[in-house]
Amino acid sequence: MSIEELARENVRALTPYQSARRLGGNGDVWLNANEYPTSVEFELTQQTLNRYPECQPKLVIERYAEYAGVKPEQVLVSRGADEGIELLIRAFCEPGKDAVLYCPPTYGMYSVSSEAFNVECRVVPTLADWQLDLPAIAENIEGVKVIYVCSPNNPTGQLINPQDFRVLLEMARGKALVVADEAYIEFCPQATLAGWLNEYPHLVVLRTLSKAFALAGLRCGFTLANEEVINLLMKVIAPYPLSTPVADIAAQALSPQGINAMRERVAEILVNRQYLIAALQDVACVEQVFDSETNYVLARITASSAVFKSLWDQGIILRDQNKQPSLSGCLRITVGTRTECERTIAALREQPGLTATEGV
After folding, report:
1. What is the rounded CA–CA span in Å between residue 328 and residue 288?
2. Residue 357: what pLDDT?
């Protein structure tokens, strides 16, 4: 029996998530992974690397709880929010019996994680405006244990209507967890559902330090949930999910000074986003620019694959969304520095736009 044959059948058939780094490229303007465009420096203060770290570092938990407005017992820290996605499936979904539900176009790891654990994926596409199709979800909720909803949604950039979240939470009460993935919430903090935890025992909120905190390389994420959920996740999490240096830097990032610095970065990104949206609307090859509550902008572009390749060859790496449902012709552009945004706009202006016949 070959190594391939030894592997689980569902894993052999699995297509791995195509992260920005896996897709590669040789650019010097990286606008494909929704990272903060420049690095933030930290100095390690913990040197006890000969000892195993705390499973849930107390200072990190306390500072994140204070920042998020929840209790420490409602916080779990993990290797990025991606691990939080997996832990929920491991703790709540029986392979071959239960299902996970998600609503594309959205973040691809919900399906990859479900398939890796041999858990059925129920796919309920969003409506034309990328809001939830609640009647279709109701028709497919039987047997579902975890429902993932990204808000603001990646890659479309818009918030999910809060009233729709309430309807969904009532629909799922006693049946399934509703997981609000808030990876980009720092760019619209007023929209968080963290304050709803006491009202909905089956609500889970995912967070990360990868975006506004400018720490994508740290791999540090958070799951906010009621204590009963957190206790179950603690049964399946790895013994030492955060290394000592990661916990050290995370605690610094969550200090009052670190949070103030994050908010300054957000303000800078919002100004650059406004510039990018306005400039894109004046580019011939850009057919439509969508509103965004995040650090990226989605645009529908004439001959988008050719434009993507042209910019790629110039070292400007965007994210092609053509294969996502309802996103034909769309590219996602991370909001970089002002210089990076200007260079991207200049490159797009060199691309051909619609002819008079094509525009009819």
Report:
1. 12
2. 35
Both structure tokens of 174:
């006693």
Task: Give the Å distances, CA to CA, from 222 to 33, 75, 320.
Answer: 19, 7, 28
β-partners of residue 317 are 30
Burial class (CB in 10 A: 0-12, 13-18, 19+), 78: buried
Cβ–Cβ < 8 Å for 22, 319: no
pLDDT digits (tens, 9 = 90+) for 64-109: 999 999 999 999 999 999 999 999 999 999 999 999 999 999 999 9
Structure tokens at 355: 């002819």
Residues 6+ apart with CB under 8 A from 251: 57, 59, 60, 63
153: alpha, beta or left, given left = phi > 0 and alpha = psi -120 to 50? beta
The pTM is what?
0.94
Asked if omega into 57 is within 30° of 0 (cis), the reply is: no
Average pLDDT, the chain: 94
The tokens 């790629």 sit on which residue? 312
